[in-house]
Amino acid sequence: MIRASYYCSGRRTASGERFNPNGFTAAHRTLPFGTRLTVTNPANGRTVVVRINDRGPFVRGVSLDLARGAAFAIGMRGTGTVRIARVGGLAESDWQGETFAQAPQASAPQAAGSRETQWPNDATRFWGSPFEHGID
What we know:
Elements: E1 2-7, E2 25-27, E3 36-40, E4 47-54, E5 64-67, H1 68-73, E6 80-86, E7 95-96, E8 99-100, H2 115-118, H3 122-127
């Protein structure tokens, strides 16, 4: 498990896209932009999938900064402990400090009818998905 916090201010992310405080995105110091992680709040079992699009956090002891929308979706307020795993790949046990034990693999292109094409943005994906209820 790692320590995570959330943030809701800023205009642009380190990847160059506009910051959406209600989105399902996150900041990490070293993971490649576009990496998708499942983030689970062990206190209530709620899970969301976030995409790394920013750098940070810049606070000692905190390894992941969630956008406010993702944090609130899993019932997180302030700084808390979360369980993470890379979508389609490495589990939390494969992490060494702030980096992967092995290089991340390139993701496959999205097929027609996939979640990426069904849900056009993060907010729509949240309200129209099982993550709204904390179901994996």
